[in-house]
# Entry
Amino acid sequence: MAASSSSPAETPAAQRRYRVLVIATHPVQYATPVFRRMAQHPQLDFHVVYCTPCGGEGVRDPDFGMTVKWDIPLLDGYEWTELPNRGSGGASFFGMNNPGLWKFIREGRFDAVLCYTGYLRASFWIAYLAAKSSGTAFLFGTDATALEPRDGRAWKSTVKKLFWPVLFRLASQAIAPSSGTRDLLLSLGIPAERITLVPFVVDNDWWTEQSRSVNRGAVRAAWGVGASHRVVLFCAKLQPWKRPLDLLRAFAKARLSDALLVFAGDGPLRPQLEAEAAALGVQERVRFLGFVNQSQLPSIYTAADLLVLPSEYEPFAVVVNEAMCCGCPVMASDRVGAARDLVAPVSPDWIFPCGDVAALGVLLKKALTDPARLHSRGQASLDRMKSWAPADNIAATIEAIQRAVTRASDAKF
# Structure
């Protein structure tokens, strides 16, 4: 979301160069392109600290059941430092414990610190106290769009309702990556002027350029389908809360003999999906690609006619960004954060109630029997992404920094 006409971007302070530190757990393929652009921005003296090892050895992913090593560079084009983690490396509070953050922030003379580690880690609080004690603006946020946790434990919602209003007032400026998150923070009583919508983005240009070079026919031929067939894509880990079984069952209900369902991703539900595809009699029209690395995903999106994401827990879902940048329209459940910001402006009728397999089956049948409509919505998806891009993310980040630095400066007096 770019700065509005009344934003600080038009004031003389907007020309100030800010020394900014980003604290992240580890290199992430979605964040790296934005970091590179920030490093080149004339208003930012930009540095990233990673709190866990970030070399080229890859990361063990228990859901994929394998070590994942992305096949694109994640550490090029910006300055970064890896600080030793004195914690266990596990998911507990002290699993991420980087005491070196204290000295790094206190001596770094930063104007602002943006922390993306999450408040349930010791490193978050080390960074917060270091920033607070040195008068440095401290920005953080959440990607949540609701208080309900993924595991459904009611007590967690109660604790969040009580604690989060206090927590997010600690931020010099709170960062919301989606409209749903912004509205959640507003509902908790966080003042609107203390929240900045910083769109959750991918490298739009890269995805679009890669898509243009894809031989769509060749990819589809490898799946055993021709130009007249329709391809439905599920692209995510095969986990319970992603609800891939809903899509499989809806696909079977739609009874489309000229359609193919492709699962790109791996995870614990794969054996069950394979068995149920056979039980439903659709195994000949279902493909399981397994884990697909980043450089191969543009081919998958470009060869598909429709991406479907039926998740029950999905704070945003950048696969929606990726698919739409490749001209692949999206159908999503009403629990997917990106449904509101990205899908609804293009296909409001393609947002369905989570868990309603019958409704999804009807939508699939209607969508897949209208190739012209699929194509037009693919083009509209490309147009939508023009205003949800890295440039919008960076403009909003700078606006948030300006507000945070002003607020931190005022607090000194």
